[in-house]
Every structure is written in structure tokens, then in C-alpha cells.
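lol forgot to send this yesterday, sorry. C-alpha cells for the thing we talked abt
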């Protein structure tokens, strides 16, 4: 299931995490180590264009399949307790197979939102400085790392 805390922030604090810029551009979000893609889909359904990154091609394909099926018939757990939709048009999803620490998968895109729920804790502590540098490289100047 997607993160209930992230859903609460998205729906309760749109002043912080609005899916659109002031000029109407849809914001881009990244979920590194996206796993099955629960948070990727939930962010898409809340209006973001979302990139899910998974190191394994098998894992990426599982996330792609979940995204396809969930987009057709979104489950209520993607939204707050009071609704069955976010009230905005869904964004787009791209599930990418790639290594977070390598630059091949990133097409000079900087992200307005990076959501890291499990990725940092899954890497070895000696890699945390490298993680921080990569996050700084990927995050737009006015972006949010959650």
C-alpha cells in the first residue's frame, strides 16, 4: 500500500506539495527503489508525472504491471479517507530500470519531488554521502525531498 503519511501531506498541505507549478506545468516526482510501485501510482493519481526507479528489470516490470492495472481501476487506498479520487487529472508514470547512483537513466531532468521511504535505509551506511550528493543532483532548486 502507498504511504498514508504521504497521502495526508499531499491532500492536506497542497501549499507544500501541489502537483502543478505556478505556470501550470505538471511537477515531476521520483521514487527511487520504487518496489512494486505503490507510491508511484498514488503520486500519479494525485497529479504528478512520476518516475519510479528500480535496479532490477524484473522489479521494474512488476511495477509497470501494477501501474497499468491500478490506473485502470484505482483502489481507494490511494486517497485519503474522505474520497475515492484526488480531484485532479492523473499525471503520467514511467518505470525505469536503472542504478540510482549512475547517470545513464537520468535525461537531464531535475525533480520537484523525490520521495524516499525505504531506499536510504536499504543502502549500506558507507554509501550515505554518495546518496546525499546524488539527491542534491536530482532535486530541482525549489524541490522537496520527502
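and heres what i got for the seq, position by position
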Amino acid at each position: 500500500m502507498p504511504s498514508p503519511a504521504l497521502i495526508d501531506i499531499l491532500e492536506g498541505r497542497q501549499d507544500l506539495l501541489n502537483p502543478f507549478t505556478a505556470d501550470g506545468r505538471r511537477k515531476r516526482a521520483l521514487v527511487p527503489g520504487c518496489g512494486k510501485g505503490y507510491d508511484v501510482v498514488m503520486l500519479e493519481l494525485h497529479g504528478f508525472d512520476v518516475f519510479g526507479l528500480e535496479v532490477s528489470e524484473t522489479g521494474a516490470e512488476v511495477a509497470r504491471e501494477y501501474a497499468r492495472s491500478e490506473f485502470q481501476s484505482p483502489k481507494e487506498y490511494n486517497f485519503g479517507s474522505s474520497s475515492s479520487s484526488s480531484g485532479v487529472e492523473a499525471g503520467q508514470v514511467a518505470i525505469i530500470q536503472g542504478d540510482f547512483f549512475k547517470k545513464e537513466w537520468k535525461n537531464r531532468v531535475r525533480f520537484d519531488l523525490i520521495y524516499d521511504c525505504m531506499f536510504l535505509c536499504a543502502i549500506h551506511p558507507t554509501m550515505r554521502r554518495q546518496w546525499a550528493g546524488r539527491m542534491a543532483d536530482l532535486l530541482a532548486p525549489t524541490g522537496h525531498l520527502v
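The first strand starts at residue 28 and ends at 32. anyway ping me if u want another try
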